[in-house]
Amino acid sequence: MFDHLDPVILARIQFAFTVSFHFIFPSFSIGLASYLAVLEGLWLKTGKSVYLDLFKYWLKIFAVVFAMGVVSGIVMSYQFGTNWSVFSVKTGPVLGPLMAYEVLTAFFLEAGFLGVMLFGMSKVGRKLHFVATCMVALGTFISATWILSVNSWMQTPTGFAINAAGQFVPAGSWLDIIFNPSFPYRLLHTLIASYLTTSLVVGAVGAWHLLKDRTNPYARKMFSMAMWMAAIVAPIQIFAGDLHGLNTLEHQPAKVMAMEGHYESHPDGAPLILFGIPNSAEKRVDYAIEIPKASSLILKHDPNAPLAGLDTIPDNREPPVAIVFWSFRVMVGLGFAMLGLGVISLIARARRSLYDWPLLHRLAILMGPTGFVAVIAGWITTEVGRQPYTVYGQLLTGQSHSPLAAPAVAASLIAFVIVYFAVFGAGAWYLLKLMGHTPQAHETEPPQVPIRSAGITPASALDGAPRPAE
């Protein structure tokens, strides 16, 4: 039934599906780990119980998100050996060590302190527990650093040579590989996106509970903190995105051409196409709504600066324009919507109506999931815009695939879809249930002493319950 399908396309769909599911969880856990460190630090500094109760509230959510991120991430590495074994053989000498460093530094750090963070508050000192929380947050940052270094090298490969076997091998300093040209910009843009995504989720949860009870101190505190974060970080993210775009123009011009919808070169200034329907067959954007010379102004800071178009790229080396064109606009549009939410929250704060403006609260709830949509749209822009290469300009996607028949890839794709929607759908439902629970004083903690399933039950764990007869 699947014999007529292209196994490379199926493998790409499978990787896109699994990475999209996976990327949701790290984009949340990176920001949430830092938020937990901030909450615990504020509790230690001020002694206010509201910070401790919010810490315990979000700690339970973090545990579920972190677990789902780990499980979904394991699948990614297996696909390198199943669907993309040729890619693994060719790039392994460069990318293998970087991924190993991620495990040795970040994952071990997270695993070593995660148990203390989740269950050790009543078993270790306050300062040691805070150190554990900070180490988990640091681990998520280091993990993102290594993974984004790997991805950035695939986008802008440097510091390599190709040996007689056709493999990419290090040539010179490893720093040239790790700190490749697009890595600093991609790291900054992705980390800020994670913090912004987390602030929108926290703000949505706070807004939800404010609509039910605007006097709830926990809802007020988390909503206020989230809106401060959105108001401060959203403009920084737009600036970081602009820097990332300029770097992409320098090193991956075909991707920017697809993002802008520039099928033709513009020697006297390129227009900014706001909306339209890319028509790759006719090499134009139909029904284009554009601002004359604005693209040259943004990308070159000169409205009359020339910009090359896709007519300078061979047809078989062009990225899929329609996908990149629209995913980029979804990301940018949501970014400005986040900026708008931050500005409105500042207006509400100035009017002393931050907790008494139901329209703002409903808007915050509506914006809650947009961070996830934006990061996935950004990821699609990055990865689809790199096509038709897995290593930009060096290794074609069609040359990276395992020698598998279409039915085999299709069967595993169907299995992934079924399992992912079942497992992670249930996980997402449970997360929503946890978030729907109203934060309260003295959030539930693990018992101070172990409760035995047999034998004598420790008296301190009975909480006043009658003791069994002697």
Topology (elements, then pairings):
Blueprint: H1 7-46, H2 49-82, H3 85-119, H4 126-155, E1 160-162, E2 168-170, H5 174-178, H6 183-212, H7 217-251, H8 253-260, E3 272-279, E4 284-291, H9 294-300, H10 321-350, H11 358-367, H12 370-386, E5 389-391, E6 395-396, H13 406-436
Antiparallel strand pairs: 1-2, 3-4, 5-6
Helix pairs in contact: 1-2, 1-4, 1-6, 1-12, 1-13, 2-3, 2-7, 2-13, 3-4, 4-6, 6-7, 6-11, 6-12, 7-8, 7-10, 8-10, 8-12, 10-11, 10-12
What features would you describe in this structure?
Helix 1 packs across helix 6, helix 1 packs across helix 12 (370-386) and helix 6 (183-212) packs antiparallel against helix 12. The protein has a domain at 189-394. It has 470 residues and is mainly alpha-helical. The strands form three sheets. A two-stranded antiparallel sheet has the order 1-2. The model is unreliable at 446-470 (pLDDT under 50). The chain has helices at 7-46, 49-82, 85-119, 126-155, 174-178, 183-212, 217-251, 253-260, 294-300, 321-350, 358-367, 370-386, 406-436; strands at residues 160-162, 168-170, 272-279, 284-291, 389-391, 395-396. It contains 13 helices and six strands. Helix content is 66%, strand content 6%. Keywords: Cell membrane, Electron transport, Heme, Iron, Membrane, Metal-binding, Oxidoreductase, Transmembrane, Transmembrane helix, Transport. It comes from Brevundimonas variabilis. Belongs to the cytochrome ubiquinol oxidase subunit 1 family. This is Cytochrome d ubiquinol oxidase subunit I. InterPro entries: Cyt-d_ubiquinol_oxidase_su_1.
